[in-house]
Amino acid sequence: MKSIPQHIVLFPDGNRRWAKQKGINTFDGHQQGYRNIIYFAEWCKKRGVKVLTAFGFSTENWKRSEDEVNYLMQLLERGLLESLERLKKEGVKVKIIGQKEKLPKSLQETIKKVELETEHNSKLHLNLAVSYGGRWDILNAVKKIMEEKIPAEDITEELFENYLSTAGLVAPDLIIRAGGEMRLSNFVLWQGAYAELYFSPKLWPEFSENDLDEALAEFENRQRRFGK
């Protein structure tokens, strides 16, 4: 392929529906979904993608049952620790974006460990969005700018982007959403302004390497005008 997106945003949607279809526990669906994110990161790296931002847990997901929220926090912590050596071997740099202060203390410590041990990797930058929302990201940037008392006339789009959770990274080229839903669900609202959108009917645990290639083929056929 000639045109490979440099930054892919992923909605790994449909874990619970997949588990229900299979007649298995919802938690098992989440576990399979997390595992598929790690595979997806490796597929992206093989194809020359430089940045992958994956939605793991939104600011709205705190409204789910306490049992499910606790399980998701434990799954993320366990998954990060179990994946760490593999991620290091693959040259993947991991960063968690979102409201880290809201997460359980043990998860916060695990995040610090994983980010520290992968910070010098350069083959793929993997953002996992946890307790993240696009509106939160924008408001958080505004608050930081106000705290620094930056004059209004000095605030440009370029400056503003330096205060977002994705500061320093190339803007997303392609947003892939699995699970059949067709909406942005409060994810990377600023960053995704000119990204191409690709919606797959596949529930996330069933999303395969071939499905990624179909999305990339579709991306290659798009004409990106950026308003011109």
Write a structural description.
It is a single chain. With 228 residues, the protein is an alpha/beta fold. 44% of the residues lie in helices and 16% in strands. The chain has helices spanning 15-22, 26-46, 66-90, 105-118, 134-147, 157-161, 209-221, and strands at 7-11, 51-58, 92-97, 124-132, 174-177, 196-199. It has a six-stranded parallel sheet, sandwiched between helices. Helix 1 (15-22) packs across helix 2. It is globular, with a radius of gyration of 17 Å. 35% of the residues are buried. The model has no long low-confidence stretch (mean pLDDT 95).
Describe this protein with a few key phrases.
228 residues; alpha/beta; six-stranded parallel beta sheet; globular
What's this model, at a glance?
This protein is α/β, with parallel strands linked by helices.
The average pLDDT score comes to 95
Shape: globular
Helix content: 40-55%
H/I helix tally: 7
Question: Which series of helices and strands comes N to C?
Answer: EHHEHEHEHHEEH
Assembly state here?
single chain
Give a quick account of the main beta sheet: strands, pairing sense, barrel closure: 6 strands, parallel
Unreliable sequence segments: none
Strand order of the largest sheet: 3-4-2-1-5-6
**Helix/sheet category:** alpha/beta
Q: Radius of gyration, rounded?
A: 17 Å
Strand content: 15-25%
N- to C-terminal distance: 25 Å
Counting DSSP E segments of at least 2 residues, the number of strands comes to 6
